[in-house]
Amino acid sequence: MNSSLELLAAMLPESVDAALIISNENRRYFTEFVSSLGYLLLTREEAYLLVDFRYAEAAAKYAKGCTVIPYKLLPEEIGRLTVKHNIRSVMLEGSAFTLNDAESMDKLLKSNGAESIHSGELDKLITKLRVIKTSSEVDKIIKAQRITEQALTETLRLIKEGVTEQEIALELEYKMRRLGAEDVSFELIVIAGEKTSMPHGTPGNNKIKPGDFITFDIGAVYKGYHSDMTRTYALGYVSDKQKRVYDTVYQAQKLGLEAVRGGAVCGEVDKIVRDYIYHAGFEGCFGHSTGHGVGLEIHEQPRLSPNEKTVLQSGMVVTVEPGIYLPGEFGVRIEDMAVVTADGCMSLAVLPKELVIL
Predict the structure, then answer these.
(1) Overall CATH class of domain 3-130
(2) Are 152 and 172 in contact (CB under 8 A)?
(3) DSSP state of 296
(4) pLDDT higher than 90, residue 327
(5) In 3-state terms, what secondary structure has residue 334?
(6) Is 261 helix (H, G, I), strand (E, B) or coil?
(7) Where are the alpha helices (DSSP H) in the chain?
(8) Quick one: CA dihedral 82, 118, 42, 64, positive or negative?
(9) Residue partners of 240: CB distance under 8 A and separation at least 6
(10) 335 pairs with which residues across the strands?
(11) Which run of H or of E encompasses 333?
C-alpha cells in the first residue's frame, strides 16, 4: 500500500475490518487512477481496486498502491475478499452511496457474513487526510492557477464594447484547455453590468458596454486538482460608487489573507472580513462565506464561514473571496487561493488585484 492508504488503514477503528471507497475523487486520491466507476476495498493488510473490463488494462498500468482486480461479477469478488481477510465489518463511504446502492451492498456483505457500517466516520477520516495538502498536491494546484491566470491575461486583450459574456467564457475555456487544463473547475462565471450583483450568475448573450464591471470567477483543473480565482474589471470608466465598493472589497480581501494562518479559527477569519464590509456601510451585501478549501474538488473542507469552529492548519489550501453585491446595480468580488502556513499564508495568485479599467 502507499502512504495515504497505510495512514487510512491505521485510522480505522479496531472494530472495523475494512473500508469501502467508491467516490471518483477519493479513489483518485488514494490510487492516482481516474475512472468513472470502481470499488476500493481497504483492509489492514492490503488494498484492492476492483474495476470492470473498461478499466482493467489502464488500472493495472496506472493505479498506485493497490492490487487491481478486474471483475465480471462484483458479488463474487467481494465475497472472495471477505473470506480471504476474514472480514466481518465494512465501513462504507457514506456520502458516496445512494440509498439503493447502500441497501444492495448491505445484502451483498450480509450474504458473506459481514455487516456494513453507515456511520459517516469513514468520510471524516478521509477528509482529515485530504484537508492537508502534500507538496505534490500544492504544485498541481499552482499549475492549475497559472493556467487560469495566463488564459485570463490573454482573454482580457479581446474584451471590448459589444463582446458578449458567453463569447468571453468560451474563449477562456478554449485557452485553458490549450494551455494544458484537463477541464474547467466549474461552469465559468463571466458576467457584466447589473448581473455582477449575482454571485453565481451565468454567462449570457448580453453585450459588454462602457461603465460595466465584469466579474470573472474562473478556474482550471490540472491532473485532477482545481484552481479558483475571481477578478473584477471595468470597461472604459467607473463611477465614484463603483470605485468605493471595489476599494472596500479589495481591503477586506487583504485583511482576510492577513488573518489566514495556522491556529486561526475559520469563523474568526470570516468575521474579520465580514465586519470590515459591514462597518463600511454594506451590511447585508455580503451573503456568502469568506472562503472554502480547494483540491480534488472545487469545494472542500475547511469552510471560512460564520460560526465555523475548525482551526486552520499548515498545508490547508483555502480561498479568500469577499464580495459586495448591490441588486439591480453591480457587484464586486475578489478571490485568491492561499496555502496555510504556521505563521501566515502563501497566496497562490500572482495576477494583480488593484482596480483595472480595460
Answers:
(1) alpha beta
(2) yes
(3) S
(4) yes
(5) coil
(6) coil
(7) 3-11, 24-31, 53-62, 74-84, 99-111, 121-130, 135-156, 165-178, 240-259, 266-277
(8) positive
(9) none
(10) 230
(11) strand 330-333
Q: Judging by beta carbons within 10 Å of its beta carbon (0-12, 13-18, 19+), is residue 150 exposed, middle or buried?
A: middle
CA dihedral 15, 18, 23, 26 (to 10 degrees): 90
- Domain boundaries of the chain, sorted by first residue: 3-130, 135-347
What radius of gyration, in Å, describes the C-alpha atoms of the chain? Answer: 23
Q: SS3 helix, strand, coil % of the chain, rounded to 5?
A: 40, 25, 35
C-alpha cell at 232: 473584477
Distance CA 188, CA 229 (A): 11
What digits encode the pLDDT tens for the residues 89-98? 999 999 999 8
How far apart are the two ends of the chain, measured CA to CA in Å?
Answer: 53
pLDDT tens digits, residue range 155-196? 999 999 999 999 999 999 999 999 999 999 999 999 999 999
- pTM as predicted: 0.95
Superfamily of 135-347 according to CATH: Creatinase/methionine aminopeptidase superfamily (3.90.230.10)
Identify the three-state secondary structure at position 158.
Answer: coil
Per-residue confidence band for 119, with pLDDT thresholds at 50, 70 and 90: confident
Q: Cell digits for 33?
A: 487512477
